[in-house]
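ligand=FE2/S2 (inorganic) cluster
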Amino acid sequence: MSEKITINFTVNGEKEQREAVVGHTLLRFIRNELHLTGVKEGCGIGECGACVVLLDGKPVNSCLVLAVELDGRELVTIEGLSKNGELDRVQQAFIDHAAFQCGYCTPGMILSARALLDRKPNPTDADIDEALSGNLCRCGAYQEIRGAIKASSGK
Ligand code: FES
Ligand code: FES
């Protein structure tokens, strides 16, 4: 039988206590235990960014983090970005700029962009490229994605 550990954490502003299977990834825990399915699995080996979530405000590839590492930390998923029924500015800008096609990369892209703008409200093009360097878009919507992030800057 798989060993489980009790973990305490905050997810999208709510405190939670859950059992996490030792050895399971954070990605698997978020999708299967928390039932937050905005986060996606692409490569499973840290190369595509589809699984990005914010841990203590920093973007991480949740396929490379263990679920038990969530203990004592603050998790934000794409479901937690909108507030009081209003989309986050970055989410709205992605819609306004048609910054997606299939949408598979979009939650990870938006969370990486959110983390960048929290850290640097007026990023340069180079800052944007660097912040998104771990997020791949197989549809090639990079130009629109950059445009959406630029439009979300400085506010
Ligand atoms: S699924 Fe995690 S980086 Fe690709
Ligand atoms: S919009 Fe399809 S992978 Fe980015």
